[in-house]
């Protein structure tokens, strides 16, 4: 059975639009030093794609039951802002090119990020890309975090996209599972974590950068033109 034409793209944010996971990891390490928790940044490999609620559950299990989540959040946010203010926050290759092409060619666009709404909107706005999106859903706007499919189902509803015609762009296994569970095709562009065999079952395509996704859309548009013209160039 032929797959339906792609008509919508839903983007994760951290590690997919921004090269932010490494900055987060550094901020966690610095917060851990203050709190007396060594190598705190190593825990990021187990929590990528989690929202703050699910991350707290992980910390209370993996580190200690009385993990000081409020203080940790306060510290990491301050350190993250400090690092970004000093060094900037790099965007991943192909972000603006893909967004511009997709917008110009009528694709519906959304963000589905586990980050807090205020934090995410600020980053996307400062980078000059928030206006490209037709809608957005963030971690503090849903009850269930990735890998639960709620965030992708909600994002499809927000932009009125058909899941079978929508591609999710993700860097993390939790996000891939979330998108697949919502009926979307998941394209994985790994950042800190490479997909294991189980994750690959939910991956439609695996690419190195968003520029590869741009080429995919261009190929689709070219195929459409050929089909419309009856194969005549």
Mind sketching the topology for me?
Blueprint lengths: L7 E4 L9 H15 L8 H4 L4 H11 L6 H19 L7 H10 L3 E6 L3 H10 L8 E4 L11 H10 L6 E5 L2 H9 L3 E4 L8 H4 L4 E2 L3 H19 L5
Parallel strand pairs: 1-2, 1-4, 2-3, 4-5, 5-6
Helix pairs in contact: 1-4, 5-10
Question: Would you kindly provide a written description of the structure presented here, covering whatever features stand out?
Answer:
The protein is of the alpha/beta class and 233 residues long. It is 48% helix and 11% strand. The chain is built from 10 helices and 6 strands, in the order E-H-H-H-H-H-E-H-E-H-E-H-E-H-E-H. The chain has a 6-stranded parallel sheet with strand order 3-2-1-4-5-6, with helices on both faces. Strand 5 (185-188), helix 9 (197-200) and strand 6 form a beta-alpha-beta unit. Helix 1 crosses helix 4 and helix 5 (95-104) packs parallel to helix 10. It is globular and about 70 Å long.
Mean pLDDT figure: 94
Major sheet strand order = 3-2-1-4-5-6
Stretches where pLDDT is under 50 for at least 5 consecutive residues are: none
Class derived from helix and strand content: alpha/beta
In whole angstroms, how far apart are the ends?
Answer: 27 Å
Strand content: 5-15%
